[in-house]
Write a structure and sequence with these properties.
Blueprint lengths: L1 E3 L2 E2 L15 H8 L3 H27 L6 H4 L8 H13 L25 H4 L2 H4 L5 H26 L3 H19 L13
Antiparallel strand pairs: 1-2
Protein name: Pheophorbide a oxygenase domain-containing protein
Keywords: Membrane, Oxidoreductase, Transit peptide, Transmembrane, Transmembrane helix
InterPro entries: Cholesterol_7-desaturase, PaO
């Protein structure tokens, strides 16, 4: 749902068709998956396209209402939803929800959208975590775990308890890596499996 030029809100619901036919253990496991974990999984999907879509939006802002037909090649059946949506926008709107905003200057409203870096476009904290109760709580808990692990590492070192010190250090390192999942994760298509 477009909220302003360069920004949108995504409403997402994962539905399992015939969920009743799943094994009992699978239904039990799905029901107990924390909301923040579900959001982390979805972020990977959004990250895969976010910057590309942003660049395409900026490219469209430079052209005409129908420019998408010439600028973007969408040959597969997977592109049908995008093509159908863009066709609907062309037919029933004046360039989308912000099509008239730039009418006075001759520029499309999309051209007025700010230029962002890749990091800004994919900033999970600003776009999601700080607004989501589940994810902001998980980030807070991860930070607490990290501090506790560092304290345990120092205690282990002071007591000359090498296993405690090393395990705690590893936990603190892991917490730092996990913390980044709520803030920013760079998505490079060539590095994905």
């Amino acid at each position: 749902i477009p909220t302003k030029p360069g920004h949108c809100r995504v409403l997402f619901k994962f539905v399992i068709v015939n969920a009743g036919s799943l094994p009992k253990f699978a239904r039990w496991l799905i029901a107990r998956t924390p909301t923040w974990k579900d959001h982390q999984t979805r972020n990977k999907v959004f990250d895969s396209d976010a910057f590309l879509l942003y660049l395409q939006e900026m490219e469209l802002a430079q052209g005409t209402k129908d420019g998408w037909k010439e600028k973007f090649f969408m040959p597969t059946s997977l592109d049908a939803l995008v093509t159908g949506f863009r066709t609907w926008v062309d037919k029933f709107t004046n360039g989308g929800p912000y099509g008239l905003a730039g009418a006075d200057t001759g520029k499309s409203a999309g051209a007025a959208a700010a230029a962002y870096t890749k990091r800004e476009v994919m900033d999970r904290y600003e776009q999601h975590t700080k607004h989501c109760k589940a994810c902001s709580g998980a980030l807070r808990n991860t930070k607490i775990l990290q501090v506790a692990a560092l304290v345990a590492c120092v205690v282990g070192a002071c007591l000359r308890n090498l296993p405690l010190a090393l395990t705690s250090l590893a936990a603190a390192f892991y917490a730092e890596k996990w913390k980044q999942r709520f803030i920013f994760v760079d998505h490079i298509h060539a590095h994905q499996d």
